[in-house]
Each structure stands twice: as structure tokens, then as C-alpha cells.
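Example record

The entry below shows one chain as it appears in the dataset: sequence first, then C-alpha cells.
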Amino acid sequence: MLKLQVKNLVKNFGGLKAVDNLSFDVEKGDILGLIGPNGAGKTTVFNLITGFLKIDSGKVLFNKRDIANLGPYEINKIGISRTFQIVRIFPKLTVAENVYAGLIGGTKSGCLRILLRSLISKGNIHKNIDQKRSNELLKFVGLLSQKNELAENLPYALCKRLELARALATKPELILLDEPSGGLNTKELEDQILLIKRIYEMGITIVIVEHLMKVIMSICNRIIVVHYGEKIAEGSPEEVSKDKKVTEAYLGSSLIAKNR
């Protein structure tokens, strides 16, 4: 059974302790929210889990395997995928080719260099890609009709959906979503919440960094609050909403209640 274990994680940037002895577990079936003020260390935690940063001390275990010294590509291979706070897509590739990047990344032989060579030549990529799977993912996120569009021509909300499709293409057990609602209007936000819920219904475990409490309270079954890189609260949305440390340090006495 899937389990992510973060144990006594520490990351320093010069004299700044970005992550301070942080520990938490993620079980299969969780939708865990990771919240805190700007600069609390939330994205740094994601970068440490996914190999974009090296930890200073502590452990990250995925299904009992120590992954702290693995690179992003290796971590993706074992079943952890992610999106980014600032959307990362291949703007000069088509929508479909962006999903192909995830499909290639989800194969044993795939790596970024091979992917880019294949895409540049465009000679063999279509032969080696499960285009049916690509179309299914694009349909799932509502982008099938734009499959041949260049990604750079998509509006921002659809770029976020494309990044989700690419992350799902790697067939993750666990997906880390970094501010998936950032920059979206009210209608786009509602659509994004529904899409995240549908991803969860696929059996994928989710950890989500988010500032909008409406999203956290409507999606998550458990919340961790970090402040200056340190965990100050953990529990159900109801429990966290009543925690005095949380309201004093971050949320404000009425903010959670207002957004429920």
C-alpha cells in the first residue's frame, strides 16, 4: 500500500531554515493539504520530495524506499508526479506532444534527452506513443479539441489543465499539486476543483499546496500547517480550523469559517 513518509526534513538556504525538522505521512487515499503563509517552505517541501533540491538532513521514504538521493526523473519513475506553482509546459510543442512527454517519461526507456531528440526529429515519436491514451487524457482534462494547437497559444487556465494531463500521463500513484488554483477566475476555479476531485476518484493520492481556503476545505480530508518551515498543526479541516496556533500565525480568526 502506498505510503510517503517525510521524517525530520531539514533544508537551509544560507542562514535561512526553509524547512525545519518537518515530519508527516501520506497514506493511500489521502487528499492532504499543505498550507501556510508565503515563505513557509511549502514549495521547498515539494522540491525536496521530488528531487529538485537535495535535503540537508532527514529522510523521504516512498513505499519504504529511501528516495532522498534520487533525481526528479527517477522519482517520477517510481510513481510520484507533480505540477508547479508557475506552469511548466513546452510552449513550442503541440498540446498532444506535451502529453507525449509524460507518456515517454512513464516508460522504462524514456528520459528527457531521448524525448527532446524524438520531438525535434518527429520521425518516430508517433510510432512509439500510445495515442489512444494521450487522447483519453486530453479528453479527461477538456483539451482534446485543442490537441494540435501549440501549447503557447492556450489561455492560462488551459495550460494548467495541460500540465495536469502531462503529470497524469506518467501513471502516478501520488501527485503533488502546487497551487493548482493560482490565477484562475471563479468559473475556472470551480472547474479545477471538480477536475482534482475526478483525479482522486481515479485512485490517485494527492498532496496539494494551496492558498485558497475554499479549495483546501472543499477537497482535503487532512491538512498540515507549516510556519517558517515548521509544522504547527495537523488534522482534519474541522480540527485545523479550530486550532489557535493556526489562526494566530496564519489564517486569522475568521478566515477558515468564511471560506468553508
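Notes for this example: Residues 134 and 236 are 36 Å apart (CA to CA). Residues 107-111, 253-260 have pLDDT under 50 and may be disordered.
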